[in-house]
TrEMBL record:
NCBIfam families: proheadase_HK97. The keyword Hydrolase applies. Residues 15-141 form the Prohead serine protease domain. InterPro entries: Peptidase_S78_dom, Prohead_protease. Keywords: Hydrolase, Protease, Viral release from host cell. It comes from the Bacteria. This is Prohead serine protease domain-containing protein. GO terms for biological process: proteolysis. Pfam families: Peptidase_S78 (PF04586). GO terms for molecular function: peptidase activity.
Length: 164
């Protein structure tokens, strides 16, 4: 199953942290998406549950955009794919180590550089804007159009959240 959406946005999360979208850039360039040191795609931040592979991970104005495939040949991958379909998508969450940060006027941390370790599929994200859409792999033009409209909708919602 193909999933995509915002792995992270520049919005303050429920823990009180803000991670600037650009904070991920050096880490993505340094570690890449494959191999033993590559950024992992997990279920609920559990290193014992790799979920598939990240196909695209890029910094955009609104946040960190991810496109990944859930491996349904793995038993829990099948379960997560079924749950994702039933819910119309789940959410993403990022696991990182802080590298550089400052405190804003409310004395909350704003991370300007992080070492991104993994992106996880989760039910309840710390960042409520880190949402996913799921699509089946297909060459059907109608499905592709719906997926494109979903991406536009997610982008607009994320940008709307930044303007608050």
């Amino acid at each position: 199953m193909h999933v995509e959406g915002w792995a992270s946005t520049g919005d303050r999360d429920h823990v009180g942290h803000t991670v600037l979208p650009s904070a991920y850039a050096k880490s993505i360039a340094r570690f890449g998406l494959t191999g033993p040191k590559g950024i992992k795609f997990l279920f609920h931040h559990d290193p014992r549950q790799p979920l598939g592979h990240i196909k695209k991970l890029e910094v955009r104005n609104a946040g960190l955009w991810i496109e990944a495939d859930i491996n349904e040949d793995i038993s829990y991958g099948r379960d997560i794919a079924v749950a994702t379909k039933a819910q119309g998508g789940l959410n993403f969450s990022v696991g990182f180590f802080p590298v550089e940060w400052y405190f804003d006027k409310d004395e909350r941390p704003v991370f300007t550089e992080v070492e991104l370790d993994e992106v996880s599929v989760v039910v309840f994200p710390a960042n409520s804007e880190a949402t996913m859409s799921a699509t089946e792999k297909t060459s059907d033009p109608t499905t592709a159009a719906i997926a494109a409209l979903t991406r536009v909708s997610l982008t607009l919602n994320a940008l709307k959240g930044q303007s608050r």
